[in-house]
Design brief:
globular
Length: about 200
């Protein structure tokens, strides 16, 4: 059940909403425009807030589908853990899609979504904390990494050892997907982002 949850999530994660949006609007892959990332931030910069919202909704939907399917239809005996396994699988597919040489997006929206699905209260709290870090530091990667890292606390203390280790796997995955950003932050070459101004400037 655990492996199948991961696999189903992975297959769903391989659908990159940002890439489909970019192809629809520009005729080019998301990997060929802007930063080359098929995520909401790149779509926001290149195509505006409307299409960024479409990308975000698509990434949330592709996370919800495998999580709900595994939790309530296919693997009910696994309980809420099915959401975590399917969610981590979705983030894995988003970050390493088989059809694109295992090069994909950063998995931030997917991670935020499956944590909220698993625990609405704690998921929302860590998401807000991550947003606060972005607003305070200007580094999108820092906020993204804080979110699952903070979730480790309730995962281990409230939901049990297995939930904690699956969450830890999600943390390791997100760190691996943000390796380039972390290196740029360390050497001072990462550009800071004024998130509010960025959204306003791309509001179309």
């Amino acid at each position: 059940m655990r492996l199948f949850s991961l696999f189903i999530g992975y297959l769903c994660g391989c659908f990159l909403t940002g890439d489909r949006v970019a192809r629809h609007k520009t005729g080019r892959s998301a990997f060929a425009i802007g930063s080359g990332n098929p995520g909401m931030a790149n779509i926001l910069d290149q195509l505006g807030i409307k299409w960024a919202a479409v990308t975000l909704l698509g990434d949330i939907l592709k996370t919800v589908i495998p999580c709900i399917l595994c939790r309530y239809v296919l693997f009910r005996p696994l309980g809420p853990l099915a959401i975590l396994y399917a969610g981590v699988g979705t983030a894995l597919g988003h970050g390493y899609p088989f059809w694109h040489g295992f090069r994909g997006g950063k998995g931030v929206a997917v991670t935020c979504a499956y944590l909220v699905l698993f625990s609405p209260l704690w998921g929302l709290l860590v998401n807000l904390a991550g947003l606060g870090i972005v607003l305070a530091t200007g580094y999108l990667a820092m906020g993204a990494l804080v979110i699952p890292s903070l979730f480790l606390i309730p995962a281990f203390l409230k939901f049990g050892t297995e939930a904690g280790f699956v969450t830890l796997a999600g943390v390791v995955l997100l760190f691996s997907l943000h390796g380039d950003s972390l290196r740029r932050i360390r050497n001072g070459s990462e550009k800071k982002t004024d998130l509010i101004s960025r959204i306003r400037s791309r509001d179309e």
